[in-house]
Specification:
- It is a single chain.
- The chain has a seven-stranded parallel beta sheet with strand order 3-2-1-6-4-7-5, with helices on both faces.
- The chain contains nine helices and seven strands; from the N terminus they run ααβαβαβαβββαβααα.
- It has 219 residues and is of the alpha/beta class.
- Residues 73-78 have low confidence and may be disordered.
- The longest helix has 19 residues, at 163-181.
- It starts with a helix and ends with a helix.
- GO terms for molecular function: methyltransferase activity.
């Protein structure tokens, strides 16, 4: 439990308020639903996605990049970037395949291929939700690779939501399904301690230096 020991060291540098928040929200965190973003180019969308993911208690995003850098607008995230881990991968089918090997069912958020409507979607295993680019949606090769497609019901002339709105709706609805399911969807103890270390480091002005010093002295 190396990460537990590291966190116990780092917590002495945290304010009481920040430590209380970390200890309160860490046990509720989950990576059971993993949002995967395809080459998002609008920084406001990136920021809104980070904020919505964190608000639903999921603390990791995969950002696949090719032409664009996933760069959230900090004025929009309202501090959510402190808590959400963004893993950046190449925008490729190989990256999606790697996520599948981690144990995730690949679900593309798109109305194509006889998509399951969100209210009817049953979640029983870890899910990677793939959201497409702002203009083109989910790319064809990822649609073909996906285990399932998921669509948000639409009730007006408009046939799609903005990607950040779609992500917010899906993350919230799936969180509600998990809460009612009885599934153990929360982080393992080791993942939780690793996350708490990251949160503590991100909460401190010299967090990286403090952590590096501790690791040097405690190999």
């Amino acid at each position: 439990m190396k990460n537990q020991e590291i966190f116990q060291y780092l917590q002495q540098f945290l304010t009481e308020e920040r430590l209380q928040k970390i200890n309160q929200f860490a046990p509720e965190s989950s990576d059971f639903v993993l949002p995967v973003m395809e080459d998002i180019f609008q920084f406001r969308n990136a920021a809104a996605i980070v904020r919505s993911v964190e608000a639903c208690g999921f603390h990791k995003i995969v950002a696949m990049e090719s032409e664009n850098v996933f760069n959230p607008n900090l004025r929009v995230t309202k501090g959510a970037e402190t808590w959400v881990e963004v893993e950046k991968l190449p925008h490729s089918l190989e990256s999606i395949s790697e996520i599948k090997k981690r144990g995730y069912k690949i679900v593309a958020v798109s109305p194509e291929k006889n998509a399951t409507l969100l209210p009817d979607f049953s979640i029983s295993e870890p899910v990677a939700l793939v959201f497409g680019t702002e203009k083109e949606g989910v790319t064809a090769e990822i649609l073909d690779f996906a285990d399932e497609t998921l669509a948000i019901p639409m009730y007006g002339f408009t046939r799609s939501f903005n990607v950040s709105v779609a992500a917010s709706i899906c993350m919230y609805e799936l969180k509600q399904k998990l809460l009612k399911s009885g599934i153990d969807y929360k982080l393992s103890k080791e993942k939780m301690w690793r996350m708490k270390v990251r949160w503590a480091v991100n909460s401190l002005q010299s967090g990286e230096q403090i952590l590096a010093k501790y690791l040097r002295e405690n190999p």
